[in-house]
Design brief:
alpha+beta; Nuclear Transport Factor 2, Chain: A; 6-stranded mixed sheet; globular
Length: about 130
């Protein structure tokens, strides 16, 4: 595989990781959500705190999944590759569907990723909110 083809494949794999993250947390599959992070990975949000490592991620995910009914929608992914490391920026539109359908939050994800034996994983996923409507 030439370098350009490999870069496209990596970019697609990182976008798919973001989609797996979204579906897993929205559908209450917390173990799968936590598995999108590398060992010792961190989820950071000004609104929801910082959670590092698999136990902390699982604990956070269980509480979040039990409390929130909605959809994470990500778009406009920009992926910068550097060998087995990458940085991704993408928009987050969080839709709350408990008793209606409304945009709850918009934000930017700032992601640092690493290629592992199991594919790309988040090392650090930071949520930078634009709004907090809920």
């Amino acid at each position: 595989m030439d370098a350009q083809t490999a870069a496209v494949a990596d970019s697609i794999a990182i976008r798919e990781l973001s989609a797996r993250y979204n579906f897993a947390i929205d559908e209450g599959r917390v173990e799968e959500w936590a598995a999108t992070f590398a060992e010792g990975g961190t989820f950071e949000s000004a609104l929801l705190g910082t959670h590092t490592g698999s136990e902390a991620l699982l604990e956070f995910g269980k509480g979040y999944s039990a409390a929130f009914t909605g959809r994470h929608c990500t778009t406009d992914h920009v992926v910068d590759l550097d060998g087995d490391r990458a940085h991704q920026r993408c928009y987050l539109v969080l839709v709350n569907n408990d008793g209606g359908c409304r945009v709850s939050t918009t934000a930017v994800y700032e992601d640092d990723l690493v290629r592992t034996a199991d594919g790309w994983r988040f090392v650090h996923r930071r949520v930078v909110p634009d709004t907090a409507l809920h």
